[in-house]
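seq:
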Amino acid sequence: INFYVEANGIASENYQLNIVKTPTIQNISIDLKYPNYIGKKNETINNTGTILIPEGTKITWNVATNQTDSVAFISDKNQQFFKQSNTNLFTHSKRILKPFNYQIATSNSEIKEFEKLYFKVDVVKDEFPEIEVVSDIDSLNNTAQFVGKFSDDYGIRKLEVVFYNEDNPTKITTQKITLDKNLNEAFYFNFPGDLSIKKGIDYEIYFQVFDNDAVNGSKKSLSKKFSFRNKTENEIEEEAVVQQRKQIQSIENTLQKKQQQKKELEEIKQNLQNNKNVNWNDKKKIDNYIQRQEQYKQMMQRQTDKLQDNIKDLPKDSENIKQKKEQLKKRIEELKKLEKEQKLLDELKRLAEKLNKDDLLRKVKQLTEQNKQQERSLERILELTKRFYVEQKTMQIATKLDELSKKQDSVAKTPKSTLNQQKEIKKEFKEIEKELKDLEKDNKALKEPMQIPEDKEAKKEINDQLNKSEENQSDKNKQQKNQKKAAEKMQEMSQKMQQAMDAMEGEMQEANKKSLRIILENLLNFSFKQEKLMDRFSNITAAHPDFGKELKSQNTLKTYFEHIDDSLYVLSMRLPQISTIVQKDLTDSHYNLDQSLENFAESRFNNGLSNQQYVMTSVNNLADFLSDILDNMQQPKNSKNGKGKKGGKSFSLPDIIKKQDDIVKKMQQGDKKGKQQNGKKKGESKGNRPNDGLDGDLFKTYQQQSQLRQELHNALKKSGKGNNPAARKVL
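struct:
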């Protein structure tokens, strides 16, 4: 374009305006190629230059231009030029590891950096993986369970457990953990599992997780560290005993709470007996009692679970200890099942809603007797556990003394033994002395303390020899004599403790048999007396002149049974074979004895006779159960094959079977007779009265059955045919 400028008649010279081609940007597209390990599809973004990308992404800028000779990529004062793909298309590629600002500028032969566009690239860094682990260390089983969870932005490559001896942290052991795909970023690990570790060593354990970062290299993160001691067998046993002691204290505290509940129930019973009707306040008290009783049951379940978990089979248990453990486990399991029973509580709750005094009072009385027996069962379990604890601790100390004597003997035989070794032995013996003092306290706390030898002279002599061993460090001959003497005395003391426990076990077994025989005899005597008294009550009324005397006899029988129950309770403290299932028969017996007195006193003779019949049934069940226990106790532990005494009666299995058949027929006849008599109407003759004479016959048959079983035991014992299959079947 040619032009000039004119004003007020004056004109300028001619000018020419030339058009220069300008380098412009028509379009920008960005190709994003993501790192393979992040699993993201590549993509293209149009008409923008500011983006957010993962670390390691390769960017290719595609710039479409017009009238452009070159395109510059300017960043941090550095300038690079795009490659020209064709006349109007320029490209530039770059792998991005960190964020930056940049410019794109176009130029041609006429104009330099005509168009400058400013952009920014933000980068998402590959983060470190995260790991969180919690542990549950089972000190009694000498294992540790770990539960962990981990996470990473793009996934992990591997997970490892690392452990080392605390005293040698530079020597680490690494084990890869195989991950379960179904768990999805979670894992479980049991230590030591299949790993080989040494006893008596303190280990540090931690977990490390590695991500799959292909840009910077795999990064790892560590969990917190955990301490784990791989205990020796002695340490495991000692800890088990400590745990038992803690559980004993917990159960003692629970028993105190049980006493408070007993008072509450007694108060409820008194109020029901004294009031004519059940009011809202009585119902509220019952509801509160039931609520506290349910809380107590839950607490007892937790404590018995813990107690049961603590009673483990340990490596150095004798056969006798193992048997007692099994019996104790069974008794605790039975107690747990009894505590779970909600039948009476549920019935009490239902009756409280109806406000029926008579039914409510009856259930409260039943619950009172049941709670009394449950309390006794708990006291019994507690005492059995205490006794077991004392026995176990005694044997544990005896084992420690035996091992310490061997250690002292080894030091005595070592020419270059040091003073520190001798001081360590003296220190260990002092710890044993302390344990002996604690054992003495625990033993005295038993209702019937055991005869554990104190042997004060042996302890004094051992201490004297240990002191002289330190003093005679310069004279090796004298020192060795002192050390050997100390080792001998330790060994002697250990043997005395073990022999005392064995002897006491035998004496206790005989005493238990004797007590059980007496209790069985008293039960049989009670049963016969109750049967005769039941027969007399069936022939009189309240107007009969002997009524007062017979009622007094029933009360005497009630007292007699209480003495039997007390004797059985004392025996059960020592004899774990007595199962808690006797609780039901004892509860029913006490309840029906009380009710029989009340019903006869109120002239409810039919109800009173029914109560007496229930008492007979419960007592017979109890006698049969205890008879089985006595039979098992009297059986020889190891039957020996051989012939009977010369001239003695030979073992005859057919004779035994014939007697058994006769007894079965009698029982069937008695059952048939009972059904016929129960079908008769009231008011018939004395001989046809319901239950008249029947229970006595049945109980005598029970006696014959028990005698036959004892006869077979004796015959088997004499003949040496204890393993005879046919004989075992009859038994």
